[in-house]
Amino acid sequence: MNTLTTLLIFSTFIPIIIASSYNADSYVPSYNSDVTSYVPTTSNDVVMNQIDSCWRAKTNWASNRKALADCAIGFGKNAIGGKFGEIYEVTDPSDNPTNPKPGTLRYGAIQTQPLWIIFSKNMVIHLKNELMVNSYKTIDGRGATVEISNGPCITIQDVSHVIVHGISIHDCTRGTAGMVRSSVNHVGYREGSDGDAISVFASSNVWIDHCFLARCYDGLIDVTHASTAVTISNNYFTQHDKVMLLGHNDAFSADRILKVTVAFNRFASALVQRLPRLRFGYAHVVNNHYEEWIMYAIGGSANPTFLSEGNYFIAPNDSTAKQVTKRETSAKWKNWKWRSSGDEFLNGAYFVPSGYGSCAPQYSPDQSFTANPASMVPSLTIDAGPLNCVVGKAC
């Protein structure tokens, strides 16, 4: 990115609480497959959110990459990725699901020791089957343009401490049944991935930041099967139906432990629903920019808890789809804790709150942060998605 000259830290804001149905089955978005048209560009003066102000203005970011691991906020704050490991450089975009070559992304991702994975050059990676990421890994795309596309994509399963930063993941397809290596010591039979961009399954301490996600077979990000301690931030979502699923199904009560922070993301045009959709668990949805939706923005079932704080909601022009919220249930939901605090609603958008008592996120001191005023969100999210970082310059 261009040189940054402005760092701002914002104060608290005064909470405000503001209290349809739509069938999206027939909706077929007109998709532009050119990823580069969505890469953010900014002026020299950039207002940075709490995550970016931790590292982006430093011209030595490339020689101190692991400092990024200290910059997360919210429930995924303690995701350290490969902070205490060696740097591993991806030089080869090829892929072999069972016997990956040194220099490939898969070879680094399956290692048992912590690794901070970077890329030697711009590359497009077409995975031949889902990429199983082992614990204590960072996939860091800064300094290169990295795309994972037109094949199965990323699976984070039964692991912890994973950071995915600064890559484009799009046009993901379902995986095929077959053998896939998940570590240097294990290759096992996989039934075939669902076609998500990133699937977080029974995992904890995960941070997904500054990625571009679009046009996948299933979801863009799924966090399921009792995963927890996850932060999803600074990402650019576009051109998709079921965007973000938090929780497996209405019978899987183990997802009660699920805790996710969704912050500073840009939910752009041609998104239909699930921004996010939650079951059982807790989601703090804070300082995100919603540029319309086709069906709804925030939805859920099985008595989840939402705090929507300081978001910037622009409703679609469709008069039947102005409501931000949707409860997927025929049962009583008025005791479910769904709150709006300090949100800004434009073009007729409105939030239907419910429940009583506090629904604060109860962050630990190191996870805690202060939400910014919703009026600042367009500026704070202008650089959502991969950054054009140049070595030797502020990002």
From TrEMBL:
GO MF annotations in UniProt: metal ion binding; pectate lyase activity
Annotated Pectate lyase domain residues: 122-319
Places the protein is found: Secreted, Cell wall
Pathway connected to this protein: Glycan metabolism; pectin degradation; 2-dehydro-3-deoxy-D-gluconate from pectin: step 2/5
Catalysis: reaction(s): Eliminative cleavage of (1->4)-alpha-D-galacturonan to give oligosaccharides with 4-deoxy-alpha-D-galact-4-enuronosyl groups at their non-reducing ends
Enzyme class, broadest EC rank: lyase
Family per record: Belongs to the polysaccharide lyase 1 family.
Name assigned to this protein: Pectate lyase
Organism, scientific name: Lupinus angustifolius
Higher taxonomy: Eukaryota, Viridiplantae, Streptophyta, Embryophyta, Tracheophyta
